[in-house]
Every structure is written in structure tokens, then in C-alpha cells.
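Intended use. Records like the one below are meant for learning the mapping from a protein sequence to its folded structure. Do not use them to infer anything beyond what is encoded.
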Amino acid sequence: MLTDNHNHTKFFSPDAKMSIEEMNAACISNNVKRLAITEHYEIDYPYKNDPLWKLFDIKKYQESFTDWKKALAPQVELLWGIELGFKEGIEKEIDDIGAKYSFDSVILSAHLFEEKDFYFDREVYERYSKNELITKYVELLVSMADKCNNYCTIGHYDYINRYSSWEDPAIYYSICPKQFDNLFEILASKEKSLEINTRSIFKMMQKNSINVLPDKELLLRFKDVGGRLISLGSDSHTSDTIGFYFNEVGEYLKSLGFDSVCYFKNMKPYQEGL
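Structure written out for the chain above:
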């Protein structure tokens, strides 16, 4: 099984329920030999009543991670990561965190759009058409990828479709090709990875979407502009989704001409064959 690069535990991600023991058992059961824990860290999160607003002590997280590694089965390699939530104006804080701590992997994600998290505030879908909202969201990803530097991966570029009521929730390259090109060119030039987030696939399945896999044209365009790093993440908050749909995504990528995906150690990418 390929590396699962995106996971959360109940100890530092308040929206997760997974214990280390459950994670370990799931890795063994699903033959996941390498897994990154990437706890949520949302700087200046606008939802003051949500637990994500209160930032955890990263040093305590590091100490806990060291203990977790000792407790894991020897066949599971555990990587230390973090998922940093982006908003305009905190680029320096984000880069400082990436530079200060010895993470294996830093995921940079945009959960907020116009100071609203789609998870809580669905009315944003009413203010824009599907194409308008996707275009604006990808423009936000472009700004995020360009202004920040100490990260490894852009997380769930398709986060925007998870909570929509669109008849077809799939995100297509053709909706905003210029914006996607800008994003892909930045990722390629900085040697950052584009994440295929299988939690998004799971959400698409729940919506009975016809197209649950990432858009073929989108992935091929990423490759065409020089993007060579694709990472897989289940975005698991419970142990039952670790490694979800990885085999299917791997076969899909191979059918498009990709021969590897990546993971990160000490912020450096390593390829693993499909």
C-alpha cells in the first residue's frame, strides 16, 4: 500500500476521533507501511467557539509523536507532519512554523474563503455560481502557493466541492484553465506536490457523483507544465478510512501515464512506484 500522507488524531485535531492504537491496527490491517500524522493548525481561525481556534503547543505535539513512534508496530513508519490552514496575511507565520520545527511534511490547505469555512457556512454556495466559486477558490490557492514557501503539499484542492449541493460536484480543469495553470506552474517551479485527497472521493461517493476520481484533463495538465509530485492522502479522522481508495487511484494514475507518487521526509520528496 502506498504512503498515506494526510491523517489526524483525536489528541491534537479536535474534529478527529482516531487513537494511535486504532491507527496502528488499521495500518497493519490495510498493509499501510508508511503514514504521516498531519494535525490541524489554524492560525487566526475566525470561529472563536470552535476548538480549532485554540492552537495546540507544537512542542508537546512533537513530544507525543516521539512516544507514538515507540509504541507503533515496527512495520509501520510514522512521519511527523502538520496541516496549516491558510488565510491572507499570515504567510510569515506559516513559513516561520515550517522553518522552526523539524517536520517531515507540511500540508498547506485553504479551509477559509472570504473568512468562512465551507464546513460551517454553506451560504457561500448561494452567492456564486459553481464556476465562479471554483475560479475564485483556485485563485486563492494560487496566492497561497505563491506567497508561502515552507510547505510540501497543497492539500485538497477540491475541498470546495465537499459541502456543495451542485448537481455535478466534480471539479474540472476546463472551469478555470488559466488559474489552474498558474497554480500548477508554481507547484512545479517550487517542487511542491499536488494532493489527491481520497476523503474528497469518499464525499463524492456519498453524493452519488458520476465522476469521483480527479479530472483526467486536470492531472494531465499538471504533468504537462512540469508537475512531477503527486501525493496521496486519506485525510482520515477515523481509522476506518486509512488508505481509502489508494489502490484504485494508483491504477487510475498509471492509466494516465504516471509511474509514481511521493511522500516527504525532512521536507524532501521521495518517489514510490505505482
